[in-house]
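Why this split exists: single-chain examples teach little about how molecules sit against one another. For that reason, every record in the complexes split bundles all components of an assembly together and asks for one structure covering all of them. Below is a record exactly as it appears in the raw files.
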Amino acid sequence: MKAREIVEQLGWQVLAGADHLENEVSGGYAADLLSCVMAGAEAGHLWITLQTHTNIVAVASLLGISAIVVAEGAPVPADTVQKAEQQEMPLVSSPDPVYQTIAQLIKLGI
Amino acid sequence: MRAYRADLHVHTVLSACAEIEMIPPLIVEEARLKGLDIIAITDHNATGNAIAVREAAAEAHRRGETELTVLLGMELQTREEVDLLCIFDTPEVLEAWQSIVDEQLLPMPNDPERFGPQYVVDREGTLVREDPRLLQAPAMVGLEEAVDQVQSMGGLAIPAHIDRQHNGLMAMLGLWPAGLNVDAAEISPNMRPSQARQAFNSIPEHVALVSHSDAHWLDWIGHVMTIYELHNRPTVTTLRQALRGIEGQRAYVP
């Protein structure tokens, strides 16, 4: 399923990288410790997190993440949004906690 | 030029996880036994005992026992749950910094049974009051913002135990944040500086690596230290000069 379809179906807000949601999503990963994400997340994954430090953009770009999903409607600092836009890294916001966010993705077959 | 033996990461009974023996007179005595010249008091998100330790050192100095310099600090936990040592020279600046942090603390109470008590004490270690706040929870200030603020107030900003999984910068943020303008990075006793350079090649070469005890009980004080070679007596300013290699001064982990 393409990132765009998922975002539209689940009604998530796109914070950055709206023009780069065409990639096919291969699965998902959830963690807030970026060292774990660097070890465990794969290219094409959606990455679900509460971490909003600007490093999330660098880490996601490095790994080839399809989109960063910030859960719980957590406020994302302006510099992180700017960085994501600059790096063409899709950054979206889910209003639900991590657990429920993932549950919805699993239901979609991700 | 003189070499000063420094342990800039020492807790007191104001940190919930510290042992009850971490009171000012015993901390000063342990520092003396270990041959330390400089310590910094760095409790979690709090500074209430730092001046008491400095006063205890002044007492010991009056008795001719020690020339220990006590710097006044805090181990801030940022919003990203990264631990950051914030070290200052004067009580006034320390208090101003604490006021800033107070506004960012989450309004959650400590549970002394579960987490340990948080005691503010005087220079003799006598109980003044308990701090009821959950000081070990993160403060809602970002890492870069905290570093900028500490430095603008003339303090040293040093991310603590960056190699540690728990609240260590590298574990939490994965990569050294580009442009992070700290005075040094602290590695835990588990790593030598050369190993840290290899393990974390995103740390710029110019960022000095230091190491301290993170002592939560007396035996740990000074079990790891950093040597500062200084022209003048130790202050935040002269320590910063050594960290930058200014005028032949330097800082290194022996």
